[in-house]
Design goal:
InterPro entries: Rossmann-like_a/b/a_fold, Universal_stress_UspA, UspA. The protein has five helices and five strands, in the order βαβαβαβααβ. By secondary structure, it is α/β, with parallel strands linked by helices. It has a single domain, classed as HUPs (Rossmann fold), CATH 3.40.50.
């Protein structure tokens, strides 16, 4: 059904909470899992608001270990740019069958909809998107 699942993560609690559901889906569908983290480019984010390269590397390694503990071999990838666009472009590049991501609830308000990465991904993705609240 879903041969390749892309799981974009950041340091939010929403990403951590979604991981267990992602593991269930990957096991149920016998899918390949690719974990992606996008470092926002410096021109689009305020200073000190994004984690540095080392923090992102550690985040990805920790996620890979967590999925390994669930018996899932995951690939990890790091990109730099505007998160929603990078996620969708990468999903297209790898022919992802599904994007599964956490949601902070930012996009539930009119003001937050423009800031919500998950909302943008839903509108731009080349494949189905599952958002875990």
């Amino acid at each position: 059904m879903f041969k390749t699942i892309l799981f974009p993560i950041d340091q939010s609690r929403a990403s951590q909470d979604a991981a267990e559901k992602v593991a269930e889906i990957v096991k149920f569908c016998d899918s390949k899992l690719i974990i992606l983290s996008v470092q926002s480019d410096a021109e689009n984010t305020p200073e000190n608001s994004t984690p540095d390269n080392q923090a992102i590397d550690q985040l990805l390694q920790n996620a890979k270990i967590a999925f390994s503990d669930w018996g899932i071999a995951a690939e990890i990838t790091k990109l730099e740019g505007r998160p929603a666009f990078c996620i969708c472009d990468y999903a297209d590049e790898i022919n992802a069958d599904l994007i599964v991501m956490g949601c902070r609830g930012v996009g539930l308000t009119e003001e937050g909809a423009a800031e919500s990465v998950s909302n943008r991904v839903i509108n731009l993705a080349p494949c189905p998107v599952m958002v875990i609240p």
